[in-house]
Amino acid sequence: MRDLKKVIKTCLLAGRIMIENGSEMSRAEDTMKRIAINSGIDDLQLFGTITGLIVSVPNSLTSQVEQITRRAFDLEKVSAVNSFSREYAAKQITLDEFYEKLSTLDEATPFFPFWLQVLGAALVSGPLMVAFSGNLVDLGVTMLVGALGYTVFYLSNRLLNVKYISEFFASIVIGILAVLIVRMGWGQSLDDIIIGSVMPLVPGVPLTNAVRDILNGHLVSGPARGVEALLSACAIGFGIAFVFRFI
């Protein structure tokens, strides 16, 4: 019985880490089932949404629930869970070692420092603007505005811990900076600068996962992820619209 409970706890922890960090539901469920099968449990039953996981074993009184309270995007953690699962399947680590590795991974902070994230936002903003519009003149200012907008998003998200408000504030800053740069003659196309600068804020992962979940038959988590992506897009759009209305 102790091993059965440990298997379920390991499955739930692995699934929670994956869902919290941007995995689609089908991949998380597949990983959880593989862990159970490699532990000698062939009939694991689970029900998963983006807010919780329920796991049980038929003909057993053992079942557990795991609540999911946050959602971020760290695909490195998702990859690490899959790597640990493969090691467990190959008998390279024990169940206890597997659980300890997952616990350590769950408590780990993001690996990339703040300055590297800002640099990544700049490198996303400028080249994508060029790809969409072919405008090479505004490449530099778009990278600068995108980096500053992401900085506002990062700092406000840490202070407020409300994702949609953070995106709203960041898009306002992006809109104001873009308007000022064009008015001062440092940039040519206001639309191109804004389009490129908001790219680091665009909810691409939730939207992709929403479509994949729906196609895989997860008709609860799929639309929920779609609503999450829609709210993020609305926050960005409202911020830019606020700038155009009052500035």
Write a concise synopsis of the structure shown:
The protein contains ten helices and three strands, in the order H-H-E-E-E-H-H-H-H-H-H-H-H. With 247 residues, the protein is mostly helical.
Any overview of this molecule?
This protein is mainly alpha-helical. Helix content is 69%, strand content 6%. The protein has 10 helices and 3 strands, in the order ααβββαααααααα. Strand 1 and strand 2 form a beta hairpin. It is elongated and about 70 Å long. Belongs to the ThrE exporter (TC 2.A.79) family. This is Threonine/serine exporter-like N-terminal domain-containing protein.
Order of helical and strand elements: HHEEEHHHHHHHH
Total domain units: 2
Task: Report, as a whole number of angstroms, the end-to-end distance.
Answer: 66 Å
Major sheet description: 3 strands, antiparallel
Strand order of the largest sheet: 1-2-3
Unreliable runs, pLDDT <50, ≥5 residues?
none
Number of strands: 3
- SS field, number of helical segments: 10
Coarse morphology: elongated
Secondary-structure map:
Elements: H1 2-20, H2 25-38, E1 45-49, E2 52-56, E3 63-67, H3 75-89, H4 95-107, H5 114-133, H6 139-160, H7 163-183, H8 190-197, H9 204-215, H10 221-246
Antiparallel strand pairs: 1-2, 2-3
Helix pairs in contact: 1-2, 1-3, 1-4, 2-3, 3-4, 5-6, 5-8, 6-7, 6-8, 7-8, 7-10, 9-10
Keyword list:
247 residues; 10 helices; three-stranded antiparallel beta sheet; ThrE-like_N; 2 domains; transmembrane helix; mainly alpha; membrane; Threonine/serine exporter-like N-terminal domain-containing protein; 69% helix; ThrE_Dicarb/AminoAcid_Exp; single chain
